[in-house]
Amino acid sequence: MLRLEDVSVTFNANTVNERKALKNINLKLDNGDFVTVIGSNGSGKSTLMNAVCGSCNIDSGQIFIGDRNITYVKEYRRARYIGRLFQDPLKGTAPNMTIEENLGLAYSRGKKRSLAIGISSRDLRLFREKLAELEIGLEDRMKTPVGLLSGGQRQALTLLMATIVTPKLLLLDEHTAALDPVTADKVMSITEKIVKENKITTLMITHNVSNALEYGNKTLVLSQGNILAYIEGDERANMSLSKIMKLYADSSGDTLTDKMIF
Amino acid sequence: MSIKTMINKKSIITLIPKLILVVLLLIIINTQMTESVVLGTLEKGLVFSFLALGIFITFRILDIPDLSVDGTFTLGVAVSVMNAYNGHPIRGIILAVIAGAVAGCVTGLLVTKLRVQPILAGIITMTALYSINLKIMSRPNISLWKKDTLFTYFEGIFGENSKVIVAGGVLLVVSLLLFVFLKTQLGMSLRATGDNEFMVRASSINSDTMKILGFALANALVSLSGAMYAQYSSAGDTNSGTGMLVVGLASIIIGEIFFRKHSILFGILAAIIGATAYRYILAYAMGLGMDSNYTKLFSALIVAIAIAIPVVKGLSIDLYKRYILKNKGGASRC
Known about the structure:
The structure holds 2 protein chains of 2 kinds.
Chain A: E1 2-11, E2 19-29, E3 34-38, H1 45-53, E4 60-65, E5 68-69, H2 75-78, E6 82-85, H3 99-107, H4 121-134, H5 151-163, E7 169-173, H6 181-198, E8 201-205, H7 209-214, E9 218-223, E10 226-232, H8 233-237, H9 241-250
Parallel strand pairs in A: 3-8, 3-9, 6-7, 7-8
Antiparallel strand pairs in A: 1-2, 1-4, 4-5, 9-10
Chain B: H1 3-32, H2 35-62, H3 69-85, H4 89-112, H5 118-137, E1 141-143, H6 150-158, H7 162-183, H8 185-195, H9 197-202, H10 207-233, E2 235-237, H11 244-258, H12 264-287, H13 295-328
Helix pairs in contact in B: 1-12, 2-7, 2-10, 2-11, 2-12, 3-4, 3-5, 3-10, 4-5, 4-10, 6-7, 7-8, 8-10, 11-12, 11-13
């Protein structure tokens, strides 16, 4: 589904601050894969996401979704196939617009925006149904501006918006990191449910190593712009927290930070 | 304290400035003005409502201050006056709207494709338009004395109130169209662009196109305002656009005293009512003997004061707290 060939990204090229964020990354995701990505700060996790969704340009290499080469496709055009969630709950929704208007915008993803009326009554019924499935009571507040919702509610809504038109690829950039532990668990379980039901190919960054092993079917470990390990199958089933830590310690002296062990 | 009583108290507090303003306006209208002044002010208010609607789109929906407004207002005046002078007042208004939209596109392209800062982009367009407007009119001012205008066409039908009816009718149609447009998929994308550009791009909307569309729409409305104003006053002047951005902002700020709610309907109503109220306040000040040279100073003051109010409020609360601490002694000294 997603294929990266020799992708490199450099920030501040040819200056003293030059920093290679991704070094010749080769990566392949099959249809329906749920890949979790871990790595310490500055390992290139977010840059990987940004390269895939097009918000940062790559120096070399190519990116494919299915058979389509999207290396030079603009960010907003890639968004037709890619659903995205950010760490910051404020980034995914328009605060001054109502829940139904936000969903209406997301629902027209990939279509040409026309002068057709924004939200039909059939759409409204669908939105209500989908919101009810989240089980956080948003279905009765469809006329509420999103700015009045809590971070967890906004993140759950963003998740619904990203998947209401089933994307080919879902990118989750630490989307539970800004939430309290209980809400984070809730959002994680909603995520898993939606991803499983629609069989969406997913790439999820997380700072939480146990989450990384618990969810999904593959785990990608990044360190300083390189792929340290791409764990799947039996190897992943036998993987434990301590083994991952050891893997890290054995590599280029990059150690996992305390933040990752909870 | 229960939530219900809090809400009630809060809504009463927010009502006070509205009530004061309404009472003031009524007093002004009743005591100070003759019937003809009341009518004339209403006409002006309606004509300048288009300007407020245009600025509402850039300033409130796109959240970008668009300075090209000063140029596009005059552009509307120029196009409208020249066509009316040559006997085509209605064509003049239609062409003015198109010209305004084109000028808006220029600002939009500067902002999005060439990454010029919005304020600078507006100044560039405004400055360029100054020459273009002079070129269109070929002299600094033109009078439409004894020429047909949109308003004279209807004088025979509606008589004395024709100007209010014509301007009000056009305004009603335009604001209805604007309201419906902002509820369409395209309109919703436009609103979201000003609200959260990140989210818009992640939803496969081209935010650049939306911004250009917004600038075009806003400047078309501003140009329409200029076109109507020129034919209303039967004269065109190349300097008539000076300070129009601030006038429009003042209108919106006054209107928002009445409608605080962030919805499209209330936003449009606030722009129209604010533009009209602004004219009445201005007429009152003139009635008191204010020099007409001070009108721009007056609108600048309204905008500056309205924006400063929250800061001054915070400052005075700070001072009050400090004063209390000082009188109690202790705390402030250590």
